Amino acid sequence: MTARQEPHRTVHARGRPAPARMTVLIGDAREARRGYEVTSPTRLMRAWRLLTAVNEELHSKGIDDAGARRAAMVFNALRNEVVRSISPHLAAEVRELLPLLDEDSGVAGTRAACSAALGWLDSLVTSMLMQLAEQGERAARPTATRGPGMRPERAQHRRPASRPQR
Hints:
Elements: E1 3-6, E2 21-25, H1 29-33, E3 37-38, H2 41-58, H3 65-85, H4 88-97, H5 106-140
Antiparallel strand pairs: 1-2, 2-3
Helix pairs in contact: 2-3, 2-5, 3-4, 3-5
C-alpha cells in the first residue's frame, strides 16, 4: 500500500470531526522502509504551489531588495511547512539542502534558493502523485483475478423467484 489513512481523533470547534490524515509512502518498498513519507500531502501541495508563485514573482522584472527580503521570509515559512509535511528522514534532507535564508540574501540568493527548493519539491510531488495514481489503478482492478494454478471462484447461482401466475 502506498498511502494509508489514519483516523484523526480531534474535533473542530463546530463539533465536526477533523478529516482523516493520509500518509503517502514515496518510492519502492526499500525506500519506504527507510522512512520516505509525505505525512501531510495537502500541506505539501499548498507549500509547493505558494513557492511556485514566490519564484515567479522573484523572476519577474522590477523586483527590488525589499521584495527579495519579503520573498526570503515567505521562503523560510514555506520551507518550515514542507519540513512539517514530510517524514523526519526527508526533513533532514531538506534542512541540509535548503538552509534558511537571512535578510541579506539579496535577489540572486533568494532566486537560487527558491529554484533549488522547487527542483527538490517538484521531484517529491511528482513521486507522491505517481504513487497515488498507482494506488488508484490498483484499486480499480477487478478483485476476482486469481494467480496461476489457483481455482477460480465458484459462481453462485440463484433460482429465480417464482412468479405469481395470472
